[in-house]
Amino acid sequence: MIETKAPGRICFFGDHQDYLTLPVIAGTIDRFIRIKGEPNGKEYLRLKLIDFDSEVKINLNDKLENLKKGDYLRSSIRVLKRYGIELDRGYNIEISGDIPINAGLSSSSALTVAWLRFLTKVAVTDNKFKDEQFAKWAYESEVLEFNEAGGIMDQYTISIGGMLFINTLETTYKQLNVNLGGLIIGVSGIEKKTQEILTTLKNSALKSIKLIQKHNPNFKIHNAKKQDFYDLRKNLPFELHPYFYAAIFNHEITQNALLELENPNHDINKIANLINAHQEILDKKLNNTPKEMINMMTAAEEAGAKATKIIGSGGGGCFLAMTESQNDEKVIGAILGSGAVDAFSVNLI
Q1: What's the whole-model pTM score?
Q2: Can you tell me the distance from the alpha carbon of 216 to that of 148, in angstroms, rounded to the nearest whole number?
């Protein structure tokens, strides 16, 4: 029996920034996608998807030429084949997890990373692949294979683990040793359309930056300051102002958060205020937070949460409530009482 697992993740700072090659701060939590399997003596993989009560069968001789969008199980096999890593025997496999699906905690990337770890364990029994290699393979399997709109945050955070500051321009990362107190996840029950939202916001942000550079060839979003927005917005149509604003101001928030998180005596209240400022931009400028979720967040804050923020691409799914541990149950109760389908405590791992 071979078993692997990979955790979900929370993006604390830098939502809708990594695809602009701007930095992010994200951490892994104690919720997982788990995979276990044993040889079946056949020439196929039989995968039982426990949480969906369904099965998938993948023939080892399948050329995997035409894949359906989002079929990360097969795209991962195709990516590994390019690197000379192939399975020579079939397995019966079970996949299960306790990460809410398509809700902003990156269940898809957790699945991809756990699956890549399983496949490499099967194909190369004494493999010593580094965590960063799994991050690269996962990004290739999810984003590049299907020309999707996301960045590298999910794959790097989940593969490497812990609280990370990720420089997405240089593809480097820094471990952060922090304690953020009580963390609550609220599951809104509102379905989100990840790729649709990502594509719209990414295209609008990139268009605004390109137009600014047309009039100001030396402009670089990585060096932009708040004043640049006010000085340069005249070069943009009004409908692109919010995306340019979000790119600059959220970058500034992430940089300020890094300074505070690197302080051995970091101030939780300052971090909470920065999370709230980030959410304000996500809601008011990028319009990615449904009114029903705002009501749930407000209930959490009234019950004692210091900060709340939608997680992931937005439009639905989960949100974070940051509180003191003694208020966990009260905040969870308030979230559930405001219409959320679930709420639970998590720990950074």
Answers
A1: 0.95
A2: 29
